[in-house]
Amino acid sequence: MRDLRAIVAAYEQLDAHLEELRGAADADEAVRDRIAQRQRINDHAYFVLAWGQFESSVEDACREAIRHGQAQRDWPSSRAWSLYDPDDRRLSGLRFEDRLALVLEKGSEYWKRAIQHYNVRNQIAHGAMRSERIEVTAVVQEFYLLQSAFAR
Predict the structure, then answer these.
(1) What pLDDT, in 10s, does the model give residues 14-52?
(2) Alpha-carbon gap, residue 15 to 28, rounded angstroms
(3) What's the CA gap between 79 and 81, in Å, rounded?
(4) Closest by alpha carbon to 50, among 79, 12, 100?
(5) From the centroid of its chain, how far is CA 21?
(6) In what helix (H) or strand (E) does residue 81 lie, and over which residues does it extend?
(7) pLDDT in the model for residue 131
(8) What is residue 23's DSSP assignment?
(9) Across 62-79, average pLDDT
(10) What predicted TM-score, i.e. pTM, was given to this entire model?
(11) Is 40 or 93 the better-scoring residue by pLDDT?
(12) Of 52, 31, 50, 54, nearest to 42 (Cα)?
């Protein structure tokens, strides 16, 4: 999540500017509505950017877990890990949910929360804009929390 701080800083700067514009247009409801719509679009766009950083960290941790598992000396400990190729660009075709399950306990609260964000990402990326705003800064803090829970 090497670019996440810069992404959040850019988001916060733009959001503060839009909020300032919206506040200055307090007498004109149509202008306020247009600015609020821009803020929502901005939230969605920056959420997807931030998600990309989180997903990349899942992939890095997954590759690390695979390599660690394959390095085990005894076959009972390493046998399942041999199914995966950590150098494969698509991680042996693993779905995101499966990659996530290699670094977070499947079904845990952390895993469920990451999947909820993944579902939001999918909705946005496939054209379904949400009616509510996304608190990008809070979501990014949660991404850091989730990343800290990865099995190492």
Answers:
(1) 999 999 999 998 789 999 999 999 999 999 999 999 999
(2) 19
(3) 5
(4) 12
(5) 29
(6) none
(7) 92
(8) H
(9) 92
(10) 0.91
(11) 40
(12) 50
